[in-house]
Design a protein that fits this description.
Number of domains of chain A: 2
Number of helices of chain B: 12
Strand content of chain A: 15-25%
Structural class of chain A: alpha/beta
CATH topology of chain B: ABC transporter involved in vitamin B12 uptake, BtuC
Radius of gyration of chain B: 20 Å
Number of domains of chain B: 1
Distance between the termini of chain B: 20 Å
Shape of chain B: globular
Distance between the termini of chain A: 41 Å
Number of strands of chain B: 2
Structural class of chain B: mainly alpha
Shape of chain A: globular
CATH class of chain B: Mainly Alpha
Mean pLDDT of chain A: 88
Strand order of the largest sheet of chain B: 1-2
Order of helices and strands of chain B: HHHHHEEHHHHHHH
CATH superfamily of the largest domain in chain A: P-loop containing nucleotide triphosphate hydrolases
Low-confidence stretches of chain A: none
CATH architecture of chain B: Orthogonal Bundle
Helix content of chain B: over 70%
Oligomer: heterodimer
């Protein structure tokens, strides 16, 4: 496949006259890390909700791999290869870490296995264990998710998106509330993701954004303010006044 | 390799085994003493445990509260009574009751699963009330009198035959069916489908983002629960010789929810223990006082306040700890030894 994996065309939605996302267009290149930045309330999470199917766009189109997927349900978006994480940790707190991953991975199993015991689903368990290893959660495999630290839960949030091998990952502030050490570790994980998938990221950590992003899209009050490579974005006077200017 | 959920259910299995052994011993003693009353009371408790299993599958594992599971129990009972009046076949009655509750729960599910949370609960209640009123006003179904004179049925089990008016024989048959349904439901909860149900209870909003259909899973759980209630409902007219619209009433649905809460929600086996507690409690207190509902109601409130996880809910964690201390050779090798005690 060639061409951009995700094309966003004039996407918009308004809530009672308030244009939360307004006429936003951009493309996401394969095996790249594209980061959406912008002040609070700029419409970043709403944009993710529109792309992942959590909200139905009021206008515009979403093309995944060249196919129009505008307004599909979250389930169909996931089936099309798009996985997303959440800004506020959204896991199965009462289940074990491994079971969280295994449930997310069981979509890879053939439908005929739906009524066979889960301990026979080698593929899903294997994928789950590979994620435990990669995300440094093996020692916590049997712990309940609710008992994990915040940083571990944030890492699991990424692992759950990745476990079934999506084409495109939407990560909504993966390092939110993380310690410095955890952020560094997560940064390397995200960087490694681009080898096997494409990453669309929402982040606030400027150093992290500049370090790992291939492209940056700046949103302000629901509209696209600028887009380009990190260095160009940093040098952009409009972006500086809108975003970096505060610092 | 057993995962945490399997280990959780293992405690339920031990309690189920204990229940089975206790039921066999007590019924043998009862039969030895020539008792029929308590054996038939026990049979009734087991039959109502079926609605409890149905409620617990929905409430304890899928995370939705139905206040109308008696609807499918009643449909099974009426279907069974209508069959038995014409053809004295236990198996035909069971198949027709299962099919009728299957079809009915698809219709009910299509309506109730359009909404969630408290709205689902209200619709499930409304559906059962509407159906009960329809039956109450249908002369062909005996209207308010119900259907009386359901004949005694011979249950052909191949090698031996059991009559539904043989207290011990019928008790053992019902016990076998309840154990079988418990086994089937526990198996289903061990499958990928069952785990989606458990995921729904844990965090319904995340499930579609993992690529699974919330509606489809809830619908399947609802139909499965309806069929479980319907199959046990089929046994009720065989025990009592009649059916009445009260079988579908809120009293019946409500009692099933009470017995699940009493026993311990989310354990399956709690529904069975809870149903036995409730039926015994009602009968024993009912023999002292006409106002047994007051006593049962107060005791229920006490249990919910003092033991919010139910009676089995108290024993369950303790048993899980005990089982996890068994020699690891009993578990398949390779599983990490780390344990979680919640």
């Amino acid at each position: 496949m060639t061409g951009p994996i995700l094309q966003i065309e004039k996407l918009g939605i308004s809530f009672g006259g308030f244009k939360a996302v307004d006429d936003v267009s951009f493309e996401v290149e394969r095996n790249c890390i594209t980061t959406v930045i912008g002040p609070n309330g700029a419409g970043k999470s709403t944009l993710f909700n529109l792309i992942s199917g959590a909200l139905r766009p009021g206008s515009g189109r979403v093309l995944l791999d060249g196919i129009d997927v505008t307004g599909l349900s979250p389930r169909r978006m996931r089936a099309s290869g798009l996985a997303r994480s959440f800004q506020i940790t959204n896991l199965f707190a009462e289940l074990s870490v491994r079971e969280n991953l295994r449930i997310a991975a069981q979509m890879l199993e053939s439908k005929t296995n739906a009524l066979l015991p889960v301990r026979w689903s080698r593929l899903a368990i294997g994928r789950a264990d590979a994620m435990l290893d990669r995300f440094g959660l093996t020692s916590k495999a049997n712990d309940l998710v609710g008992s994990l630290s915040h940083g571990e839960q944030r890492r699991l949030e990424i692992a759950i998106c990745l476990v079934a091998g999506p084409k495109l990952l939407l990560l909504d502030e993966p390092t939110q509330g993380m310690s410095h050490g955890d952020t560094e570790e997560t940064k390397e994980i995200i960087r490694s993701l681009a080898k096997e998938a494409t990453v669309l990221l929402i982040e606030h950590d400027v150093a992290l954004i500049m370090d790992i992003s291939h492209h940056v899209i700046v949103l302000q009050q629901g509209r696209k303010l600028a887009a380009g490579e990190p260095a160009a974005i940093r040098a952009n006077p409009a972006v500086q006044s809108a975003y970096f200017g505060r610092a | 390799m057993r995962d945490q959920q399997s280990k959780f259910m293992r405690a339920s299995h031990v309690l189920m085994l204990f229940f089975l052994v206790a039921a066999l011993i007590l019924s043998a003693i009862g039969a030895g003493l020539g008792d029929a009353f308590y054996i038939r009371l026990g049979t009734e408790a087991l039959i109502f445990a079926g609605i409890g299993l149905s409620v617990d599958l929905l409430l304890g594992f899928t995370g939705v509260l139905s206040l109308g599971q008696a609807l499918y129990f009643g449909i099974g009972a009426y279907a069974s009574a209508l069959v038995l009046l014409r053809v004295p076949s236990f198996w035909l009655a069971l198949v027709v009751a299962g099919s009728a509750s299957f079809v009915a729960s698809i219709f009910g599910g299509l309506i109730a699963n359009r909404v969630r949370g408290v709205y689902f609960t209200l619709i499930s209640l409304g559906l059962a009330q509407v159906a009960a009123k329809i039956v109450y006003n249908t002369r062909e179904l005996g209207a308010s009198d119900g259907i009386i004179g359901v004949p005694v049925v011979q249950v052909d089990l191949g090698l031996l035959s059991v009559s539904s008016d043989d207290p011990l024989g019928f008790f053992l048959l019902v016990l076998a069916i309840v154990v079988a349904l418990y086994t089937i439901l526990s198996y289903v909860l061990e499958t990928p489908f069952g785990r989606i149900l458990i995921a729904l209870k844990a965090n319904e909003r995340r499930v579609p983002f993992l690529g699974y259909s919330v509606w489809g899973a809830r619908m399947a759980a609802y139909v499965l629960a309806g069929v479980v209630a319907g199959l046990l409902g089929a046994l009720d007219p065989m025990l009592r010789g009649f059916v009445s619209p009260e079988l579908m009433s809120f009293m019946t649905s409500g009692n099933a929810v009470v017995s699940v809460l009493l026993g311990g929600v989310g354990t399956l086996v709690g529904a069975i223990y809870g149903s036995v507690f409730l039926v015994l409690l009602k009968s024993v207190i009912g023999s002292w006082s006409e106002h047994h509902q007051i006593v049962v109601g107060s005791m229920f409130m006490m249990v919910v306040l003092v033991l919010p996880r139910g009676v089995i809910g108290v024993i369950h964690p303790w048993l899980r700890t005990l089982l996890s201390r068994l020699p690891p050779s009993l578990d398949r090798p390779g599983s990490p030894v780390r344990e979680v005690e919640s």
